[in-house]
Amino acid sequence: MGSTLILLTMVLTASSCYSAGTKDDLAADSSLAMEPAEVKLSLLIAGDLMQHMPQIKAAQQSDGSYNYDECFAGIKDEVESADVAIANFETTLAGAPYSGFPKFSAPDDFLSGARGAGFDIMLTANNHCVDTHRKGLERTLAMMDSMGVYHLGTYRNISEREKNYPFLIEKDGLRIVLLNFTYGTNGLPVPEPCYVNLMDTTEIAADLEKAKGMNPDVIIALPHWGIEYQTLPSKAQKDMAKWLLEHGVDHIIGGHPHVAQPIELLNNKQNLIAWSMGNVVSNQSKPNTYGGYMVRLEFTKNDTLTVLSDHNYSLYWVSRPPDNGYRHGYRILPIDYPDTLLTAKEKTLRSAIRGSMRRLMKEHGKGEIKEYSLPSSL
Prior knowledge:
There is one protein chain. By secondary structure, the chain is of the alpha/beta class. It has one domain: Metallo-dependent phosphatases (Purple Acid Phosphatase, chain A, domain 2). Helices cover about 25% and strands about 30% of the residues. β12 (about 260-265) and β13 form a beta hairpin.
């Protein structure tokens, strides 16, 4: 997160909130500050954070601990440059012993690595959120709370959901409401008394009514949807997107297919749909699964008018052993990371996914949304 004061608000009552500003910000008497004539807020939204067993083993240190700093170093500058950064946390933190596919449970250090890279909010409604049952769901949320990571999508009980959802981000009067829900939980039952937001239109309609009552300037839906490994949105995705826009959602940023799907800017820039951002990091090896994009949205509010003042995306890919000659573990890198710092195998793999994603965006993207160069922290 940048140095700008952001109020990340989990609504406890109609008027209360939690603040995630700096210590100096919190020490100031905000009641004396005048609301600025123009407010800008930038959001960075990334795809699926996954942890297969080879990733966990690669992160293990000689003393038995785990460290993910190197994994996130290549995108740290970009993530931290946004006012608020969001990703889908597609594993659980149930504690040792750790496990990968099909029932994920990662070291707590994976979350702390993502937090250290600048991610502020985790989406937890996805098809793996109950992989480790009640213990995993509840412990994941407890660890996020302990590390100062905000979250939405799963809850310890219905009362917690009613207090904290929909999720509000507020900065100097600019209010953005987030919704997160999943198509399912891989057939596993949601353990009582826990609650998972499902892609049920009756429930989402009620959530949208509550969201509208929060006086938002923008409503963003973050669905976990689609068909795995398909680079174009399914009919079900398109139908659901149409329904969401008709019921008051402004922008839709999706995940789950584990590959990039195109971005569409519609209705005179009033609605942006990113069908799937792909994986942030994983050990998947199917075509197009070792890369993706991050969406960056900037909103500007003047008096009562709020507009999407900037919108773009950055591409990245994942280098991993043995492709990188065992010199490093898993590293998320900018798509144009210098060739001179890559092995021959890395260059071949990066070239393939870079060409594939850029063709996808060119041939199937809609509207004036541009790729921008991703700065590297390395």
